[in-house]
Amino acid sequence: MRIATYSFSNRLISDTLRVQTQYAKTNLQLSSGYISDDYMGIASDTQIVVDLKSNIERYDIQTQNANRVKTRTESMFAAMTSLNDFANQFLTKLSQALSGSYPNSADTLASAQSVQINVVAALNTKVAGRYLFAGSMIDTTPVDLTDPAIIAQTVPSVADTSYYQGDGTILQAQIADNHTINYGVTADDPAFELLMRSLNLVINNPSDSTAIAEAHTLVQQAIDGMATIQADLSQKASAIDTQILQTENDSNYLDELLSGLTETDITSASVRLTDYQTQLEASYNVMSRLRSMSLHDYL
Amino acid sequence: MALTSALNLATFGMVATEIKVSLASQNITNADVAGYTRKTYNPGLLTTNVGTYVIGGDINGSVNKYLIKDIVDDTSLTAAKKALSEMLNIYGKQIGNVAAEYSLADSMDDIFNGLSALAVSPEDTAYRTQVVNDAGVLTSYLNQISDTIQAQRLAADGEIANSVDRINASLQKIADLNEAIVSGGGVQGMDTANYEDQRMHELQVLAEEVDIRYFMSSDNRVQIYTPGGQPLLLSNAKTLTFNAATSMDSTNTYPGTLSGITINGIDITSSIGGGKIDGYLNTRDQFFVEEQAKMDELTDKLMLQVNGALNKGTSVPPRTQIIGSERGLTGGESLAGSTGIFRVAVMNNSGTIVNYQDFDISTFATSSDMVAALNSVPGISATFTADGQLQIDATAAGTGIAINENNTVTTPDGLGISHYFGLNNLFQGNNASNVSVATYLQSRPDNLATGALSMSATLAAGDLGVTAGDGTVAKLVADSLYATTSFDAAGNFVAQSNSIMDYTQALMTNAVFRTDAANDAYDTASIMLASSQQTLDGTQGVNIDEETAYLLQLETQYKASASVIQTIQALFDALIESIR
Asked: Do A42 and B542 touch (CB under 8 A)?
């Protein structure tokens, strides 16, 4: 068996170049932090990497949406806490008026009007450019007392939502793949209508004790109704919190998987680099020795 | 006289040694020349009554004809894989960038995210701009990849032309060498040996271009055929012809507008099996045709799904002029058999209704009936443009048009009436090369619809036609990317039910796989070829140390012969001296 001189050294050179390429590639992996710039370097993992990225992106937007909805829900809850305060305030005044310990009907009227202003302001809460209690008509003020269709209430009062300018859409949002949440509350909800009606009744009949008595009942019913709504809002906010946490957990897990597939494992890459370096050095050594092993030098 | 014979013997010996020295010198000089085999001198022996002379003989190369046959096959295979792998690499890299999050799938994720955010916060105009921009990125990407595909096909086509030129040159060279070997054999032995080397080497060069089968005829000619039996070289070299294309798009195919490889008008393309030409043919006619088909199918279904969803919505503020993306309509297109009711409204800029009307499209016979219907609505005028697009204008200042296609289903494609005319598209175009974002969105991203015109039976003038908090259409469009739809068979994908996102992932994965596989195939083939080549060179190549050692031996032999002659000369002198 024999070898041809040039063919042998050419083979050696191309083999060395191959090791050099691996060395350079490993170096690049260490410096960039990624196993490969393009998908060909992780070819067999392409499907799962693309899928993971897609899922992580989707989880991110779902979390963002969930946080927005949570802000709105919390704002609605806060507004309703105020409404509860105003309603209780009003209830106290009505009790006083009924028991005769409140000065006179003018003061009852003034008190009712003041509460009405606050109640309307609370129902017209606007957060981040959205009216919260207007259904999907988020750019329309939900409660407008100048609406000509509003009835001036008398005893017995009748339900009247003419003050409401929004629509009946209950806002909903998808905050996870299988979790859509209805979070909307509209200002024409029966609980609010009761409160508005009671105020209307008193403002239009401040000296009528039957009216005040009926208003008293209505306010009590309103407070009960609003408590239910508030409890619901609280439960929804809590459900959103749980979902956000779960989504974040899932997202973190997928992030780790993705890192494992796309990012360089520094330790093993460093070891590989050292190996290639050793291999290259040995290769260079062989090539230089070969040069010196020529019969010419000995003649 | 014996002395004279001795002198002659020594002289002939020295001449033979000189020939060997010149051969050793030639070997060393040409050691690194590709295809050069080690030459040796086999002297002839002439026995006379006065001794055995070294005379004549011939010069032989070390060509191993049988090993070369294997190498020729390996060369063809490796060259084919190399050509394919190189052509595919650019495409594989463009499929996506892992770190920079730039790929088809990433673009779609971005669009989905923007739409999902809009669904919850439709009042946030920044998201509209974002979605339209991201849609633009997606379409640019599709255009760019299609350009790459067609550019590579054109490059492959050009390479085929180059390859055909090289094949023709090679065949002619082998034919000339055949002649030289046949005519020169026996007279000038050295040249024949070198010609044989060159001929064998040229076969390898040819094999790199195209897969060949070759035979030696009885008169030491090489005859070459394609694996399919088509002769390339018999007594004369055949000429291959190929017409290079000057431009390339997805409509250029072979057979068709693209050229095949012909000999005397006979198309031999299908009988070609290996070599660079095979790699390039594969690139031009199979691989990239399949990839383009998949891109086009993805684009087709993407537009179908996304436009189908977006056409349920209406812009707020409403557009004063709507021009449909569908072109080439004459008004005579049949709508017979269509069903459903749609609503068209004139809205002012705040979104409140001025007037509206409902239409039942089962009464429509042709597309011009739509124009007539729209024209019957006060405040709206409709017509077909010169390009055959449906144009709808709101005639009163400060008003615009709103349409809800509702439950309408047109025949034969089953599209809603708005989608049929492309009135509210996100994407326009008809394939991956020309898809783009609809013009009305490019100029004003705010036109992106997120909500729908109310279909309430009690809708009245002065009511809001579309509410600001309505994000239902944005959600529909987002969901359409994940909804299951039917894909036709395209490229190497069978007909399937899948979502746009999943199909995109599958497309990317498959493209990467195939490119990677092509690279691996080339690596394997080239390693095998290198081994075979090494073995061949080992058998027939020049080893410099060997030649150097041989030279030493020749030097000694020459000196010995010279000293014999010296001795004989001294003997002659002594003889003459003795006669005087």
From this structure: no
